[in-house]
Design goal:
Layout: H1 7-11, E1 27-39, E2 48-58, H2 63-69, E3 75-82, H3 88-98, H4 108-111, E4 119-128, E5 137-145
Antiparallel strand pairs: 1-2, 1-4, 2-3, 4-5
Length: 148
């Protein structure tokens, strides 16, 4: 929800005017990390580090595909890491290899504040929904790389 719109204003929209937001077409984008949160999402109960990211621009996507999808930049999306002893290495690799944050003897927790404002390349894929969301597709971050 936008900080500039109140819940009352959002709910005052006519139902006929409510449309799903544009989703990013599959492909590569340049992303900026806006901020992050550490929490334990209710759905899984597994601790997570969730980065709030903003696509600054497409990296390898035909501009007509973006226009046809109704995508405007910047476009926000979350990139989450669910944390267990066996998965922590994925977050470490993202911090060091993709965001180019030096470890320098620090803990992961000490490295996280340095992520804000960092750029990386990330590929978006579309993942099919299941259950009540069958037939719908959801954008998901797949491969990430440092910005060239």
């Amino acid at each position: 929800m936008s900080a500039s719109l109140s819940l009352e204003a959002i709910l005052s929209k006519k139902a006929a005017d409510v449309k799903p937001p544009a989703i990013l077409p599959p492909g590569g984008y340049i992303w900026r990390i806006l901020d992050y949160v550490t929490d334990r999402p209710a759905a899984s109960g597994t601790p997570a580090v969730r980065f709030n990211c903003q696509a600054e621009m497409a990296h390898d996507i035909d501009p007509t595909v973006l226009a046809d999808a109704g995508v405007e930049f910047p476009h926000k999306m979350e990139h989450a890491f669910y944390i267990t002893e066996n998965s922590l290495f994925r977050l470490k690799e993202f911090l060091e290899k993709d965001l180019l944050i030096a470890e320098n003897g620090r803990t992961i927790a000490e490295m996280l504040p340095e992520t804000e404002g960092k750029l990386f390349r990330g590929n978006v894929i579309h993942r099919p929904g299941s259950g009540a969301n069958a037939g719908k597709f959801f954008p998901n971050m797949s491969e990430t790389h440092p910005v060239d």
